[in-house]
User: Fold these one by one.
Assistant:
Number 1:
Amino acid sequence: AQKVTQAQTEISVVEKEDVTLDCVYETRDTTYYLFWYKQPPSGELVFLIRRNSFDEQNEISGRYSWNFQKSTSSFNFTITASQVVDSAVYFCALSPYNQGGKLIFGQGTELSVKP
Amino acid sequence: DAGVIQSPRHEVTEMGQEVTLRCKPISGHNSLFWYRQTMMRGLELLIYFNNNVPIDDSGMPEDRFSAKMPNASFSTLKIQPSEPRDSAVYFCASSRPPGQGWTGELFFGEGSRLTVL
């Protein structure tokens, strides 16, 4: 069975702190996609990143970075110098390689960044 | 470009009533997805379509739920009869065909918040 676990239910940090959101997944597929989505208080879901299972290169986009380690089935997300606008629920998700939209979501981590 | 458009944004109904949720995907997208979000179960896929054809409806909870996509620009999710446990936010999402520049991104609508009393 495929499963995504985000063990951190809630995280609270002070602005400018770095924060890492953990994601561990389970799948028997050899190829798959991993995603992160953001759900701000307004409720919509916003795509952040997709990784292919065969590409373990870490990625950085501004203050965001992602660490994919296939050996530990983890796809962690780090926000550097957090800001109040980063406050949201963050979801990690997994999909089969040939069904990229069929997302299996983790339960989400609610990040609160306080000024 | 307009995003995914869902209606109604909020719906309050009584148990036993029929509920119809509507979705207009982004023009040019060939895949459409219905997701449901609840506190207990989180975000879960109900059904998805490719080129207007239902591909996987294994997430549809019961026969009370049905979804259609009569054309490339419109889809409905119907619940008949509705029950209090159907209360949730229902998201519609669409994506473009795989190809050059494909990111795998699902474009989500703002959701339809359903409350069944």
Number 2:
Amino acid sequence: AQKITQTQPGMFVQEKEAVTLDCTYDTSDPSYGLFWYKQPSSGEMIFLIYQGSYDQQNATEGRYSLNFQKARKSANLVISASQLGDSAMYFCAMRDPRVSAGGTSYGKLTFGQGTILTVHP
Amino acid sequence: KAGVTQTPRYLIKTRGQQVTLSCSPISGHRSVSWYQQTPGQGLQFLFEYFSETQRNKGNFPGRFSGRQFSNSRSEMNVSTLELGDSALYLCASSLEGAGKETQYFGPGTRLLVL
């Protein structure tokens, strides 16, 4: 069974500084995808960044980058130049790589417990 | 392109009642997944639909059911509501539900069971 662990219940960062949110995962499948989502107090889950298990380079999307260490099974999210609007809950998630007869994979997302990020002015 | 929409946004029901939640995916997306989010259990997968067929199901009792229509819109139903069903219900859509595809979430429906 897949498992995602986020060990930081809460993190604080000063505006304009960088912050790293930790995520470790456990799976026996060689093919998997890792996602990070942001959830503001409104409740909507906002996609931030994706990393595939076979991707050679760490993913980056604007101020977001993923520090992917496959051997350690970690996929930490780095937010550079934090903004007040970054204050939210952040979730790491893994896609269940179930394979259909057609050769494509599909499936549910397994989420970590989340980390509440607070950005101070 | 419009995002995932969910209706209603807020709902108050009493124990024993049933409820139906609706989700309209992003245009062109055929896979719809449902998740329940509670403070105690976090985010849990309910089920996934693709081309009107349920292809994946989480560990929830039979009181939780869903369906998908030919236009990819999906509904989930909870019968005989219990207090513990109070939660944020999130719907997510993706093109095929496959591999690298990102699931895009709607704003959620907040259900309160009294």
